[in-house]
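Kindly inspect both lines:
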Amino acid sequence: MRASLIQIAVDEDEAVNSRRSRVASLVREVSARDGSDLVVLPELWTTGAFAYESFADEAEPLEGPTYEAMSKAASEAGVWLHAGSIPERDPDGPLYNTSLVFSPAGELAAAYRKIHRFGFDKGEAVMMAAGSELATFRTQDTTFGLATCYDLRFPELFRGLVDAGAEMFVVPAGWPARRLEHWLLFARARAVEDQVYVLACGTGGAHAGVPQAGHSVVVDPWGEVLAEAGDGEEVLTVDLDPGKVSATREQFPALKDRLLGQAPPQRGARGA
């Protein structure tokens, strides 16, 4: 299967509606040009991940304008579309950092509310509620697990996704440039320890004056970097072999030696 990661550069002078239309056009153009089966967008590309002051003003219901634009783009392009994440306003009041995935028919295939919010005692951590459920979606070829940005620092989330059947992780992000090496390290670590593909899609530009790392990256189950972007707006297109996940796990069956967090091994009767 072929995946394209669109590393959006968030320009604060570009209106949200204009960016939404531009990105929808990019989804259609990239999928037509590259023959993509899956297209991935970054975290909070409508507002910027560090533009905290705009979260409340730009928050939208799940089936809001971004949902409508991305659903249409997915169906017109005939691709699976991970539409990055939006500041979602729940009808009951809380804000969530919510990822949306659409099928080639434009139907919502999965939604994931980010569990680990960044900021410690400010920003996203206090302005948005935490999600509580893991999310996956299944294509004809494989199962994808969903995570977002800061989630990369919490390996237990990814082990949970492996237990749910995930063979590829999609991680949209708005990762700051000053911690670029952490971003690249964690993407490779999650791939190696869980023997999966990692598709990590970041943003370029600057969010509220915070330079973004960019460097979207695709890593295979052995930890090899298949493609890596620079720090501006860019598209990565990579061919993925879903069979490589099972082959890697058979060749080097480390996951079978997990003990912590697993049910105790069953022992046979003495003398058996």
Notes: The helical segments are 16-34, 55-58, 65-77, 124-127, 155-163, 180-194, 243-251. The first strand starts at residue 2 and ends at 7.
